[in-house]
Design brief:
two-stranded antiparallel sheet; 6 helices; 4-stranded mixed β-sheet; 219 residues
């Protein structure tokens, strides 16, 4: 089954999904996948590879964002980017003129300037990465988020007052203070620094290949 896509060109990037505009000469791109969903099936039948993300690097190898597979393929076909790491288990995509394997990491051929933002927004995914998916109180696998000073007692929703937490500790702590329980934190609560944390804030699960580009905080 053939899927027709209007390809789009890359413009100045934010650390989220980059903007798009139509690229001359790319409108005839037709991605052909033998495993594509049959006609008439719902969105739940979309192949798993279509939902995957591809890490986009700047020309300087600075991580920018995680792109949908189709957007990454368009950048490659339009020669806006080059593959850095192919996914050995990735889907092979064909068109009338191209045959390529879905990559894991791609890099822009030309450098783009990204506006600098000092403070990283706190999201559940980013907080889990900061605390390495471990409970800040006991060190077991984290399943939820806890406010060190409960919100009912004036605690804020911030990097300095939120931690990854396991369900048992979350239940035991309830709305009490650490001093009332005799508990201590395993590490100081500080906001993460580095532009790659903006990418971590939006992606809970990461391809292991990405880690070499995302810095120590992503490991």
């Amino acid at each position: 089954m053939k899927h027709r896509h209007g390809a789009r060109a890359h413009r100045q990037l934010e650390p989220t999904v980059p903007g798009t505009s139509r690229e001359p000469g790319a409108s005839s791109l037709q991605l052909i996948d033998e495993g594509a969903r049959p006609s008439g099936l719902g969105e739940d039948a979309v192949p798993a590879w279509v939902k995957r993300r591809v890490l986009l690097l700047n020309a300087t190898y600075e991580p920018l964002t995680a792109l949908p597979v189709r957007r990454a393929v368009v950048l490659l076909v339009c020669d806006k980017a080059a593959a850095v790491h192919e996914d050995p288990l990735g889907q092979i995509i064909h068109s009338a003129e191209y045959s390529l394997q879905v990559p894991s990491v791609i890099r822009l051929r030309n450098y783009v300037r990204v506006p600098y933002r000092a403070r990283i927004p706190m999201t559940r995914a980013a907080l889990m990465h900061r605390d390495r998916f471990r409970c800040a109180y006991c060190g077991d696998k984290a399943e939820t988020i806890d406010h060190v000073v409960p919100r009912s007692r004036g605690g804020g929703h911030s990097w300095e007052n939120c931690v990854a937490c396991c369900a048992p500790c979350n239940h035991r702590k309830a709305d009490r203070l650490l001093s009332e329980l005799g508990w201590t934190l395993r590490a100081a609560l500080v906001p993460p620094k580095g532009r790659h944390w903006r990418l971590l804030a939006d992606n809970k699960e990461l391809d292991p290949v990405w880690l070499r580009y995302l810095g120590e905080g992503a490991a």
